[in-house]
Write a structure and sequence with these properties.
310 residues, alpha/beta, 8-stranded mixed beta sheet, 8 strands, 51% helix, elongated
Length: 310
């Protein structure tokens, strides 16, 4: 069973039901069919710019090849979406951690409610199961609930967590965490940060301060800045990606709640628009439902023939 078989049904059916309705009774590719495909892409939240890019490429190919069957058009659509999912010409799943760096420091950012704390907990559990020593830093010191939730996940995963009193300087927590990780010879450090889309300058200053104090201990930290996005928010996810990319150097993404969204096309649009690789996807509530993202499997699941034929 592929990673998307369990949790990607809503997006798959939403996408292909629309395309299926568009092609029913059609014997050739015309403007009406292309318009219907455009509507299907936009309604799955791929974004207008990405959708227009796909449609323009389809129109060029149809014009060049003169006659195109419905089956050929479907394959062209698969190819165009697959091409947009390429980041740095990498294929298949992207290895999330470079364990040659020890400890490997990942700073996790994102707004409240997207599943950031849960993602950190699931990551910690996954790494612990792989035999890695993990330390979590609870640097979201503005919300007691966030620290308490993180503590529950840390205990559940069986990993250490560094915390301070509420209202403490987040950078101080991050500093203590990486210093503890070095002392304990940890493999991975996961730093939670405040989930507030406050004034961009404030956000930038806070994240920059966290980065700078960690570098007093580990000169090249953080090695990854993971932005967590909620797929169910659709176009809001684009805005969050834009704001956080402006505030800090986001290097990877985790997209959550794909099991509860019919708008999984946001994955395609975000990769196309921001050129940031997706490392992880969340496809359920279970502790094992955070998966390493595989672009090929994602596109294959989006174009599942068995669902298309229903």
């Amino acid at each position: 069973m592929g990673i998307f078989d369990k949790g990607f049904k809503k997006t798959n059916m939403n996408f292909f039901q629309k395309i299926s309705r568009a092609i029913t009774g059609k014997s050739k590719v015309d403007d009406d069919l292309l318009d219907a495909i455009e509507e299907a892409l936009i309604s799955s939240d791929m974004g207008v710019d990405t959708t227009l890019k796909i449609i323009d490429n389809l129109e060029d190919r149809v014009h060049t090849e003169k006659y195109v069957s419905i089956e050929e058009l479907t394959e062209m659509l698969r190819e165009e979406i697959g091409a947009l999912m390429k980041v740095d010409e990498e294929d298949g799943p992207v290895e999330p951690f470079d364990f040659s760096k020890k400890p490997y420091v990942m700073m996790v950012v994102g707004v409240n409610g997207v599943g950031k704390t849960t993602t950190i907990g699931k990551l910690a559990s996954r790494l612990k199961a792989e035999g890695k020593k993990v330390i979590i830093g609870a640097a979201d010191t503005f919300r007691a609930a966030a620290v308490d939730q993180l503590a529950i996940w840390a205990e559940r995963a069986g990993v250490d967590m560094v915390r301070q009193d509420m209202g403490s300087d987040p950078a101080s927590v991050a500093y203590d965490t990486v210093r503890s990780a070095v002392a304990k010879n940890a493999d991975v450090v996961l730093i939670d940060t405040a989930g507030r889309l406050h004034n961009r300058i404030d956000l930038m200053n806070e994240l920059t301060k966290i980065r700078n104090v960690m570098r007093k201990v580990i000169p090249d930290a953080p090695h990854d800045v993971l932005l967590v996005l909620d797929s169910t928010t659709g176009q809001n996810a684009f805005q969050q990606a834009r704001e956080f990319s402006r505030a800090t150097d986001v290097t990877s993404l985790a997209v959550t709640k794909l099991d509860g969204s019919a708008k999984g096309g946001v994955v395609v649009g975000i990769v196309d628009q921001f050129h940031i690789p997706i490392r992880f996807i969340g496809i359920g509530e279970g502790i094992d439902d955070l998966k390493v993202f595989d672009k090929k499997e994602f596109v294959s699941s989006l174009f599942s023939i068995k669902d298309f034929e229903k």
